[in-house]
Amino acid sequence: MPPIIWEHRPERLRAPAMVCAFGGWNDAAEAATSAANFVAGATGATRFAHLDPEDFYDFQATRPQISLVEGEARSVAWPTVEISSARVRRAPRDLVIVSGPEPSMHWRTFCESVIDLAEALDVQMVISLGALLADVAHTRPVPLVGITSDEALAERTSVTPPSYEGPTGITGVLHGAFEEAGMPAVSVWASVPHYVAAAPNPKASLALVRKVESVAGVSVDAGELETAAADYERRVSSAVAGDDEVRRFVERLEEAADAEAEMESEEEVPSADALARDFQRFLNQRGDES
């Protein structure tokens, strides 16, 4: 059986962008998969294919789930990567969304299968999402890091390049495989506060959704996620306020974030010499035109 099981062929997609997110190691606080699934739901995406789980999962590590059907019969849901497509109104492109648990094995075959899928659908760009634990404050904007070797995507992404070196997950491996295949690809990661890592983090998910919008050039109604993000910040702040040690720790993180933001703001302000050069160039151009 081929790794990709097609349930039906989606109608011709317009310059599609593929959004990928995988649970587990790559998905702190489930921020990445929640973002991908939110985009799928908000755009009315429908599943058209999935990967055969037999090839990629250790079912003792990622177990199937049993549920009751009409209170009696049992249904077994196998872990798998689901593949959906959405036609996005008032946008220059459509979306293909690939989401599911991180595979346990045969990663190279897995990557080849996803790349084959992208080529079959004439995917124009790939956006992979991840989330990592970090020393960041829940009260500040979510820091994003991103990596791409494509100049056009680098301009659209405008996030801090990562400095991390070490073990990686399927998100990093798949991103590298897409770049080796010559397909425009960007990987964007949200930083999640490690002191609330166990809880779902809609604020980080919202930051990833907004980045998908800007990179892919699509618009998503994220009002529900915005409300959840604001409620998340209020609930965490309330919990932090009740623990003096954690509160002081968060205050130090806030101070560090504010200092870094101030430094970045100062770097963006042009120097007096640069302003003088720009003004002189403007005067010279005026002189040439007269």
Describe this structure in a few short sentences.
This protein has 290 residues and is of the alpha/beta class.
Query: Which H/E pattern describes the elements?
Result: EEHEEEEEHEEHHEHHHH
Biggest sheet details: 8 strands, mixed
Total domain modules: 1
Question: Helical element count?
Answer: 8
CATH 2nd-level architecture: 3-Layer(aba) Sandwich
**Level of helix content?**
40-55%
Q: Based on DSSP secondary structure assignment, what is the total number of beta strands?
A: 10
Q: Could you give me the name of the CATH homologous superfamily? A: PAC-like subunit
> Which class do the helix and strand fractions yield?
alpha/beta
What proportion of the residues form beta strands (DSSP E)?
15-25%
Q: Which stretches of 5+ consecutive residues score pLDDT under 50?
A: none
User: Please, what is the average pLDDT?
Assistant: 89
User: For the largest beta sheet, what order do the strands appear in spatially?
Assistant: 1-3-6-7-2-8-10-9
**Can you tell me the CATH class?**
Alpha Beta
Gross morphology: globular
Report the span from N to C terminus: 73 Å
- The CATH topology: Rossmann fold
Rg over CA atoms = 22 Å
Provide structural commentary.
This protein has 290 residues and is α/β, with parallel strands linked by helices. It has a single domain, classed as PAC-like subunit (Rossmann fold), CATH 3.40.50. 42% of the residues lie in helices and 21% in strands. It has an eight-stranded mixed sheet, with helices on both faces. A two-stranded antiparallel sheet has the order 4-5. 37% of the residues are buried. The mean pLDDT is 89.
